[in-house]
């Protein structure tokens, strides 16, 4: 059984009580805090920046996974690294020089990843695998929480899993495969079977009254997965 990681997106948290919401979800069993950064330019929504990351950093030792939905990306990379991010991912469409942006993330001591929108082809990862620690597939169009999972993402996950497994077999390098958008208790097993090992879930966790019960239910579904 591969290690499965659950990454609640604080986009769906009660932002008036953000600190408590971070602590509570980690106490409930989350592995990662997923931090959605939107700029009202690359995506039609506006969220939070490095100062908010810096504010939550002392509250938890959980991994902070910063998903940059901003264009351009490079100027924000050092700022998020300084604010305590552990992983920084960005969309290839938002960088003029993908290899350079990935290198910049790693030079700042963070794990680096590329994010693929539903219609963005996976071949954009082919020549930068050595600089990737994570591949994030969007199963919704980016910009909002609470959207419906796009089923074609399952085929894309299988393709990405194959590419990553081939690369890992050749080099020994581990690359996490994360899925983001519309992940729920009732589809997480199918998504894991298609190849994901890391699961962002915003509304499915923060929209329920008992975060531990929801995360436990997700783990129970994941325990049934055969791959
Ligand atoms: O990147 C995102 C949106 O662009 C969010 O991480 C994602 O939508 C999580 O929300 P939900 O689990 O409610 O779909
Ligand atoms: Fe996200």
Which superfamily, in CATH terms, is the homologous superfamily? Aldolase class I
Unreliable stretches, pLDDT < 50, 5 or more residues? none
Tally of DSSP helical segments: 8
Strand content: 15-25%
| Strand and helix order | EHEHEHEHEEHEHEHH
Known CATH architecture: Alpha-Beta Barrel
Compute the number of structural domains. 1
Q: Which secondary-structure class do the elements indicate? A: alpha/beta
**Based on DSSP secondary structure assignment, what is the total number of beta strands?**
8
* Rg (CA only): 16 Å
Distance between the termini: 7 Å
**CATH class descriptor:** Alpha Beta
Largest pleated sheet:
8 strands, parallel
Helix content: 25-40%
> For the largest beta sheet, what order do the strands appear in spatially?
1-8-7-6-5-4-3-2
Descriptive notes:
- The chain has one domain (5-223): Alpha-Beta Barrel (TIM Barrel), CATH 3.20.20.70.
- Helix content is 33%, strand content 19%.
- It has helices at 18-27, 50-56, 76-82, 98-107, 153-171, 188-193, 203-206, 211-223; strands spanning 5-8, 32-38, 63-69, 87-90, 111-116, 134-138, 176-180, 198-201.
- It has an 8-stranded parallel beta sheet.
- The model has no long low-confidence stretch (mean pLDDT 98).
- Bound molecules: ribulose-5-phosphate and fe (ii) ion.
- Residues 9, 34, 36, 67, 180, 200 line the site of fe (ii) ion.
- Keywords: Carbohydrate metabolism, Isomerase, Metal-binding.
- Pathway: Carbohydrate degradation.
- The active site is at 36 (proton acceptor), 180 (proton donor).
């Amino acid at each position: 059984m591969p290690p499965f990681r659950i990454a609640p997106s604080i986009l769906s948290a009660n932002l008036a009580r953000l600190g408590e919401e971070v602590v509570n979800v980690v106490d409930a069993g989350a592995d990662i805090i997923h931090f959605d950064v939107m700029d009202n330019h690359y995506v039609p929504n506006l969220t939070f920046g490095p100062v908010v990351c810096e504010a939550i950093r002392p509250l938890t030792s959980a991994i902070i996974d910063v998903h940059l939905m901003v264009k351009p990306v490079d100027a924000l990379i050092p700022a998020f690294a300084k604010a305590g991010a552990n992983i920084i991912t960005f969309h290839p469409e938002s960088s003029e020089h993908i290899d350079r942006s990935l290198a910049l993330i790693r030079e700042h001591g963070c794990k680096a990843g590329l994010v693929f929108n539903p219609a963005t082809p996976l071949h954009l990862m082919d020549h930068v695998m050595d600089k990737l620690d994570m591949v994030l597939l969007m199963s919704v169009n980016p910009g909002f929480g609470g959207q419906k999972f796009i089923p074609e993402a399952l085929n894309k996950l299988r393709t990405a899993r194959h590419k990553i497994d081939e690369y890992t077999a050749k080099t020994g390098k581990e690359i996490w495969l994360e899925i983001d958008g519309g992940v729920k208790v009732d589809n997480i097993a199918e998504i894991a079977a298609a190849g994901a090992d890391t699961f962002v879930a915003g509304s499915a966790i923060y929209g329920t009254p008992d975060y531990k019960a929801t995360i436990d239910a997700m783990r129970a579904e994941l325990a049934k997965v055969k791959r």
